[in-house]
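Sample intake sheet
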Amino acid sequence: MAEWEHKDRVWNVSGYQDPYGKLTRHDPGLSFANWLDLQCKGGWEVFKISRNFNSNLNDTWCVFRRLV
């Protein structure tokens, strides 16, 4: 059976977590799609995305996984 490693990260319109989990103020050139690409480096893939559309920040929580 496959062994998976998981990480969860948050993105919203004012900031995001970098691939190491550090909170960073939003870079205007970093769209959500580009942020996903950044998170997927190193063999990570998107496992789940959950977005809060009721928030002004469009808080988005993502779970990523990769085979160990």
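Comment: Residues 32-39 form the longest helix (8 residues). Residues 16 and 56 are 15 Å apart (CA to CA).
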